[in-house]
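Backbones bend. To wit:
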Amino acid sequence: MRLVSFITPSGTASYGTVAGSDVLDAGAVLGAQYADLRQVIAADAVPGLAGVGTALPLADVTLLPPVPTPEKILCVGLNYLSHIAETGRDRPRHPSIFTRYPSSLVGHGTPLVRPKVSKDFDYEGELAVIIGKAGRHIPAEAAFDHVAGYTCVNEGSIRDYQIHTTQFWPGKSFEASGSIGPWIVTADELEDITAQTLTTRVDGVVVQQAGLDDLAISIPEMIAYISSVLTLQPGDVIATGTPGGVGKFRKPQLYLAPGMQVEVEITGIGTLGNGVVDE
């Protein structure tokens, strides 16, 4: 199943499922019981969304981040072997984790915003894991039992702010600098997530491409490590890292500018696309 959050043509925030070229507005039916998709996931009620709601043309709705207000957005840096190689760093023993906030991410089709204080606006195509069941001290062998599904992320980064100090947070948290979506594909649709391929395109040109088996620290290892620190909650987002080919390390460098189009495609999931505008 493909799960979406969206704004209807009448301006109402809702959620539902994708059926071909339509979305089914399950929120219009179930909204009194579950206010948003995060509550649906937390109640283990996702199967009940199947076939529920009036069909609306997908082209007529505005897609939001699939979980618009997750409790946590946790990002793992330097986690593809190809990206580690291009940065000249050593393979990590533990995941490098930083946070983003919901205001830093927009949905599919909404422009990314290059901030007025910098022109070093980079793309980072990533896979995101959406947590489906709460857990603390989750063993790696049980990690996939806590996964609701997967989606695409463009973890947009303001590179000069990222390296102002040893803390990544400023460069990763500018408003509307990244995107997520277009939808969550439920875990039962993807037998082996590591068999998928991630591709990032800028203005139609491939700039990143890697199999998801290139991760230095696996998805179960990430979940086990993070949950040793805090309780993962339904709807939490874990962005799992980006492959080599980011703009900062290209020769010449390739930074995003107004008018450009960025796409992050993951086989089995879909394509997240956004334009770029200035603040």
Observations:
- Helices lie at 27-30, 37-42, 81-87, 159-162, 219-229.
- The mean pLDDT is 95.
- The longest helix spans residues 219-229.
